[in-house]
Design a protein that fits this description.
The complex is a heterodimer. Chain A is mainly alpha-helical. Chain A is 81% helix and 2% strand. Chain A has two domains: 1-50; 65-109. Chain A contains four helices and one strand. Chain B contains nine helices and seven strands. In chain B, strand 2, helix 2 (48-54) and strand 3 form a beta-alpha-beta unit. Classes of the chains: A mainly alpha, B alpha/beta. Chain A binds chain B through residues 83, 86-87, 90-91, 93-94, 96-97, 100-101, 103-105, 107-114, and chain B through 27, 30, 38, 40, 53-64, 66, 70, 73-74, 77-78, 81, 172, 174, 225-226, 228-229.
């Protein structure tokens, strides 16, 4: 293994184990987001340990190079995350608007012109 | 002099940093017999709220600046809570003529329409810059394609609504895209609408403070993204 692998793979394994521990032992119900995150850490660790495996996976679905598969996956995930965060910010803004509106109406005031 | 207008008409004004103009706007509207004027101070950093209060308006203050769409929705909801039968949205910067409110309201009052939309292109647009005119015309085409609503002026803030229409229309676009959203809502809920010729007076002040024509692109973006997030 090269130095990069010695540094990154242990970090990814620890992150994966932390998420798995939370999913398996600490949470009373199934947590999809943590499970998916643990899978992402594991996949990243495996891909960094043996980059040829990404080529095998890529070839299996008709993509020639493993690097292309990683790039396509990254783009798709980035677009999905971007839209998810945008939707979250819109919903947050709507909640904030409702609150500001509620206060504004509750504190409405008027006085006759002098 | 014409008899005073009944109190079932509420004028809703969204205002942001309009301390220099809002009192004159409120006074002008009240001088036409409309006692119920709601100014929504949209988090202004100047004395907009105090000026509107002194002029005799109901003043509602947003703690932070949310945008014109949000301010109008706040004002409309307040007016509905107060029992408004007819509601008029009116700009704070003096571009609209309060003498035209009665004409705008007429089709709604008569029951011929649920919503009356002011149109500067059927009426008059005084001193309108050419670029602004072209952008507004492009907005008309966009609205026809996007919303299927055939109007001559899509971003005119001078509108009259029946109580039913104000209860039905829900403005969720906080910023400038609300004007297109209102047309969407009119179409989606099958509300009857008419266009009424109105006058818009552009002044150096209103142009300096008003929307940049480039904001049209941002409005399109807000509208498209707003449709994706429910």
């Amino acid at each position: 293994m090269i130095l990069f692998q010695w540094i990154v793979i242990p970090v990814l394994v620890v992150l994966c184990l932390l998420d798995l521990r939370r999913v398996l032992f600490r949470s009373p119900r199934f947590q999809l987001d943590r499970t998916l995150r643990a899978l992402v850490w594991a996949a990243a660790a495996v891909a960094i340990y043996d980059p040829n495996l990404t080529s095998v996976a890529a070839n299996a679905i008709g993509i020639q190079r493993g690097a292309d598969l990683v790039l396509y996956a990254f783009v798709l995930v980035a677009v999905g995350v971007g839209f998810y965060l945008y939707a979250r910010s819109v919903r947050l803004e709507r909640a904030l608007t409702d609150m500001v509106r509620h206060v504004a109406i509750a504190e409405a005031k008027r006085r006759e012109p002098t | 002099m014409e008899p005073p207008e009944p109190d079932d008409v509420w004028i809703v004004v969204a205002a942001y940093n309009e301390a220099a103009r809002v009192a004159a706007t409120v006074a002008g509207v009240r001088a036409c017999g409309y006692r119920n004027v709601v100014v929504v101070d949209d988090g202004s950093r100047d004395a907009t709220g105090d000026e509107a209060l002194s002029a005799g308006a109901w003043v509602l203050r947003h703690a932070i600046n949310l945008g014109q769409g949000a301010a109008l929705q706040t004002g409309l909801r307040f007016a509905l809570l107060k029992g408004a039968a007819y509601l008029v949205t009116f700009d704070a910067d003096g571009q609209h003529d309060p003498e035209e409110i009665a004409r705008l309201l007429a089709p709604v009052r008569s029951g011929a329409a649920d919503v009356a939309l002011g149109s500067r292109f059927l009426g008059k647009a005084e001193n309108i810059p050419l670029v602004r005119k072209l952008v507004l015309k492009a907005g008309v085409v966009f609205t026809r394609v996007f919303s299927g609503v055939r109007v001559t002026d899509t971003h005119n803030g001078f509108r009259a609504l029946s109580r039913k229409a104000a209860q039905t229309i829900r403005i969720r676009q906080n910023r400038m895209a609300h004007a297109s959203e209102i047309l969407d809502e009119v179409q989606a809920h099958g509300l009857r609408y008419v266009e009424v010729p109105v006058t818009i007076r552009y002044t150096a002040e209103s142009l300096a403070k008003g929307q940049s024509s480039w904001n049209a692109l941002r409005i399109v973006g807000q509208l498209l993204m707003g449709r994706l997030v429910r």
